[in-house]
What we know:
Oligomer: single chain
Number of helices: 5
Distance between the termini: 28 Å
Bound molecules: biotin
Shape: globular
Helix content: 25-40%
Amino acid sequence: MESAAEPVRIVRHGVVDSTSERAFAELAAGRARHCDVHVARGQTLGRGRLGRPWHSPTDAALLASFVLMPPRPWNAAALTIALGLAALDAVRAVGLDRARLKWPNDVVVDGAKLAGVLAETRNLDPECPQYVAGIGVNVAQRDFPRTLTDERAVTSLALCGIACTVEQLLAELLRAVPARCALVERDLERLEHDFIRGAELAGRVRLESAAGTIAGELVGLSIAGGLVVRDDSGGETRLALEHVRALAAI
Ligand code: BTN
């Protein structure tokens, strides 16, 4: 990725409820600036997607929330994809080449979750759009609570053999997030192309939506136009990205 134009301002916390909550509090107080990054050593109420908690042990994980205040509202799918790619760029930059994206923006290694992204807005005002992008990456953990591992496979940079500190990874993320977010304004095709590569989706895929599951060739993935999959009988299904529940290569 090219480097970012936006300067970032790091706001450091010890153990907090949630870095995203701290970012929203600064927005509410009128003190936030575009590209502020709230970073914590640990979280007591770290939150993940779909209302799940986010495991946030002290000094073992990267826990960061970016304040994003673009001039006009961003396409939600584009932002989701950009943030997943930023997390992927950062972990690859510290040496984890085999990391992949999993729909919509998990970073996984051999199917085990390494990082997650939660992009949130509150009362989005089109005149003054504000987003908080929370990113959590497992860095030094060598074990995880049973409640987590019973649900799904998880991993960390340490378990993947990458000796990297939270600070080193943060430095990469500080470059990657503004650079990828700049593409939301400038180059959706690049995001689409890099997402297909990062998730290894070129070829046969399985697509899950409210309408059911289909398998077939990925014909196209477009932020504006949605996803097109051609099934084995030659029929094509088109689906807006916000309706995609799961999408994976098979
Ligand atoms: C997911 O479920 O995949 C998203 C996880 C997002 C976790 C990060 S950690 C930093 C920020 N603060 C939070 O409370 N959540 C996000």
